[in-house]
Amino acid sequence: MWFFGSKGPSGFSSSSTAEEVTQGIDGSALTAIVTGASSGIGVETTRVLALRGVHVVMAVRNVDAGRNVKEAILKEIPGAEIDVMELDLSSLASIRKFASQYQSSNLPLNLLINNAGVGTPFMLSHDGIELQFTTNYLARESNIEGRIVNVSSIGHRFTYSEGIRFDKINDESGYSSWYAYGQSKLATILHAKELSRRLKEDGVEITANSLHPGAILTNIMRHNGFMNGFFHLIGKYFLKSIPQGAATTCYVALHPQVKGVSGEFFMDSNISTPSSMAKDVDLAKKLWDFSFTLINPK
Questions:
Q1: CA distances from 100 to 95, 146, 226, 253 (A)
Q2: What mean pLDDT do residues 135-154 have?
Q3: Which residues are the active-site residues?
Q4: If both were cysteines, with which of 42, 113, 153, 252 could 36 make a disulfide (CB 3.0 to 4.6 Å apart)?
Q5: Where do runs of H (alpha helix) occur along 77-153?
Q6: Per its UniProt record, what Gene3D superfamilies does this chain match (predicted)?
Q7: For residue 183, which of 96, 122, 248 has the smallest C-alpha distance?
Q8: 293 or 9: whose pLDDT is higher?
Q9: Nearest-angstrom CA–CA distance, 242 and 219
Q10: Per-residue model confidence (pLDDT) at position 51
Q11: Which residues contact 2 (CB under 8 A, 6 or more apart)?
Q12: Residue 209: which H helix or E strand, with range?
């Protein structure tokens, strides 16, 4: 992490904002899907991409909330191209419906920004899979043209001792909401690395990277009363602002410095080093196969 605003090799730092890291970039030829675009850094990511001319498709669970965000952005940026589509990442049926509708729209797709995430106590998704694993990771199992950006977290370092509990994903005994969150974020990084490897192997010019946006005061811990209260208490002193929190996402999605860069982990708009588990090639391959069985049950 580049502390106290000191700049890294990219020329940016932890204090850089999404507008600053995309200054002068023309994204008018691009179309992006942003999940979780109706709150937190998803809103700022959508706004800044639209500011740079990107046609943004907001993939949101609450369509009304998404439309409110769209209207607010259009007041600031009258010429912004923004669409709102329904997507519930806790439901594989909803994901498949969204994919089908998007394909039918005949819109191109250059940027897929997997931003949505949750931090919850033990819950199962609509498909009977642990909710954090489904929403924060499993819903990202797709191959899209252009740049794929997975918003992960430094929290990936705080997971179960085995990294991914393949045999206990839905086991409530021994469940820790904090470790489950870390597990889902570790999976997000491993997914980007394995996807990147496969794309390179196939000679496909698509990049896949993951990132830590920084510690930000958002509503992601709303299900954890203690942590939510703690973050809100100290947040104004130590945490990033929303514009700073969205910076690394926008940097990885748009900046020319990231062209052709794939399989990396970013923090503070610079390439960083994730945990040793996040670099485990065999674990990434095992996760890929495991995920395929979950989303393609016999």
A1: 9, 19, 40, 24
A2: 64
A3: 175
A4: 42
A5: 92-105, 131-136
A6: NAD(P)-binding Rossmann-like Domain (3.40.50.720)
A7: 122
A8: 9
A9: 12
A10: 98
A11: 8, 13, 14, 268, 270
A12: strand 207-212
Cα–Cα distance measured from residue 153 to residue 274, given in angstroms and rounded to the nearest whole number: 10
Residue 243 to residue 12: CA distance in whole angstroms? 14
Chain centroid to Cα 38, Å, comes to 13
Q: Which pLDDT does position 90 carry in this prediction? A: 76
| Residue 223: pLDDT over 80 | no
Q: Residues 209, 149: contact at Cβ < 8 Å? A: yes
Give CA–CA dist 137/165, Å, rounded.
14
Query: Distance (Å, rounded) from C-alpha 153 to C-alpha 211?
Result: 7
Q: Kindly give the interhelix angle for 63-76 and 40-51, rounded to the nearest 10 degrees.
A: 40
**Distance between CA atoms of 74 and 144, rounded to whole angstroms?**
27
Rounded to 5 degrees, what are φ and ψ at 60? -135, 150
CA dist., res. 9 & res. 271, Å (int) = 9
- Backbone phi and psi for residue 82, each to the nearest 5 degrees, phi listed first: -140, 130
Nearest-angstrom CA–CA distance, 133 and 67: 27
Token code pair at residue 121: 């106590």
Domains and CATH numbers, the chain: 3-293 (3.40.50.720)
